[in-house]
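hi! just following up on the protien thing from before. the input was this:
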Amino acid sequence: QVQLQESGGGLVQAGTSLRLTCAASGFNFNSHFMGWFRQVPGKEREYVASISLGGGIPYYADSVKGRFTISRDNRKNTVYLQMDNLEPEDTAVYYCAAKYAANWDGDQGTDYWGQGTQVTVSS
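and the predicted 3d structure came back as:
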């Protein structure tokens, strides 16, 4: 059974940091690009960041570039999102995602989604 289990969300003040973790199981982690998306009620899901199969190439949305860092540990089947200098605009439910062998163009082609973890940034 495929599982993507996010953790690490919470309520923080602007300017502080959070680290999200996504533990994956039930599929070939090493063969999947891993990514993070976020969604605010009433809006479309938004791409945040993704990382290549071996972890050597990260990709970021312009809105988080320079503040967020994505990484993965293929030995632990885990992907991380380090979020620094958080802003109120980062408030959303954050979803972990997996896509076989290729990076995202939008959120099309995603193979697996997590349940999401809430991040709330107060001003």
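The chain has a mean pLDDT of 96.
The radius of gyration is 13 Å.
cheers
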